[in-house]
Amino acid sequence: MTGKTLALALAACLAASPLLAWAPTPDTQRTLNSGHAWAEVLPSADGAALIRAAVDIAAPPSTVWTVMTDCRLAGRFIADLASCTVLQGDQRKGWDVRDQFSHGNMFLPDIHNVVRSEYQPYSLIRFQKAGGDLAIEDGEWRLESLNGGAGTRVIYINRVKANILVPAVMVRANLRGSTPKVLMALRRESLAAVARGG
After folding, report:
1. What pLDDT, in 10s, does the model give residues 97-108?
2. Which of 57, 62, 109, 79 is nearest to 178 (CA)?
3. What is the CATH number of the domain that holds 190?
4. Does residue 128 form part of some domain?
5. Residue 48 lies in a domain
6. Residues 143/116, Cβ–Cβ less than 8 Å
7. What residues have CB less than 8 Å from 118, skipping those under 6 apart?
8. Assigned domain for 151 exists
9. Domain that holds residue 185
10. Smallest Cα–Cα separation from 165: which of 107, 101, 105?
11. What is the pTM of this model?
12. Could you tell me how many helices (H) and strands (E) the chain has, helices first?
């Protein structure tokens, strides 16, 4: 199977997944309209955590996209991220593989993650585990245009499980606290890019 065929098969598989069909509910909309990020983290039968989250950003999708796909900026909105390196590919050509290392805390260990992403500029990033400490990672970032393109709704969906000796309930609690912070920091960096004329 060629790389292109594999990428198409992956995209078709992800597109068919009911996991990725989620959209914000009326309760979620109220949270977003109030200026906050929204997130929930649910358990699944295989021990993975299902993350569904969203935030509205007063910046065009192209600006938000530029911020969130630049490895050099990733540490500005992912607080515990120590490094991000592109190992293969080029997101401008539609895919890449990135190596990421995140510092742990008193409850969670350091995490090494290798992820392959498929890109559809300025609207969709689909990703899957390609190595590292995660047993499961499968999800997407969606960027939806708001206010005639002046704003962006960012939707994040991920099913994730790490190969670590930490109770799943503790992992979910950590994700429930950290995910909104990541989204709000992404908004801060995107607004800063707008202010710089980016």
Report:
1. 999 999 987 777
2. 79
3. 3.30.530.20
4. yes
5. yes
6. no
7. 7, 10, 11, 94, 95, 125, 126, 127
8. yes
9. 24-70+122-195
10. 107
11. 0.86
12. 5, 8
